Amino acid sequence: MACSLGVIGLGRMAQVILQSLFEAGQFNPEEVFGVVGKKNSVERVLHQFKSPFTVVDVNDKNAIDVWNTPVKILAVKPQQLNQVQEKCSKEFLAKLPAKPLLISILAGVKLKRLQSLFPDHVCVRAVPNTPALVSAGLTGLSWGEEVTEDQKSLVESIFKPISQVFELPEDQLDAFLALTSSGPAYLALISEALADGAVAAGLPRALAQSLTNFTLEGTAILLKKKELHPGQLKDMVASPAGTTISALRHLEKEGVRSALIEAVILAAKKSREMA
Ligand SMILES: NC(=O)C1=CN([C@@H]2O[C@H](COP(=O)(O)OP(=O)(O)OC[C@H]3O[C@@H](n4cnc5c(N)ncnc54)[C@H](O)[C@@H]3O)[C@@H](O)[C@H]2O)C=CC1
Ligand SMILES: O=C(O)[C@@H]1CCC=N1
Q1: What is the pTM of this model?
Q2: Which atom of ligand 2 is nearest to the CA of 77?
């Protein structure tokens, strides 16, 4: 049976997307054809999913079948893009009724480059993030030339069950990625550090981590629901001569605000360099 969805590269982010698509019933496992980079990854991926979908490694003779799918998610690292392009089968592409859709989630790689590497495809860029695993993700989308309204709807139907979707001009995608795709790692680091602080101040580890997560979640909900500016919330919490203002004073002295600003700028710069 010809598969409807090809996935090239089944690392961490592709697995998040695929897992969520299966859970949302958006694709059935038997409709999916996956290609991985190494032979021993086949077993790892199948074990992880526990659902029977076709996965082969890039050197398998059947790997070429992935080019026979009308929709593909390209999820290798930017450095692996040329290797993928070398295996692209013109023979299959010529047999497809319409130009197939290639959805690239690669950081930084521009539509212009994708279109020149894969001229027989209609290309789209999607910038997802890991909270998609719990349907709380964000995805930035930029459309390549020739994308039809039907293809736009199809791409949205892939990402909407797992994330809020934002259509953006392509030149904003690096900043979007630096904030939302890399963001979970910054917040995880902050979460771990805050829990360490609570342990140092006397709480048991598991309780400290759980309370930290609730505090982050509650704060995000409060800011969003009440449409508060972060500065307003800070002022609501910091009592005169109280605990919070002494902690905030220390954070400012250590340059935490500036470090976070620079972190996002650096991630956006790195994304641009990956192009
Ligand atoms: N991890 C994240 O949170 C996000 C990642 N991205 C982008 O998603 C892409 C994948 O990232 P990760 O999943 O984190 O990386 P990863 O390293 O976990 O996954 C890449 C996978 O591609 C496989 N691969 C290598 N060469 C291949 C080939 N020729 N054919 C098929 N498969 C091949 C590798 O074996 C590996 O499993 C990157 O381009 C990254 O910029 C975008 C947004 C968020
Ligand atoms: O760290 C990375 O390069 C990828 C892209 C954004 C999140 N993870």
Answers
A1: 0.95
A2: 3
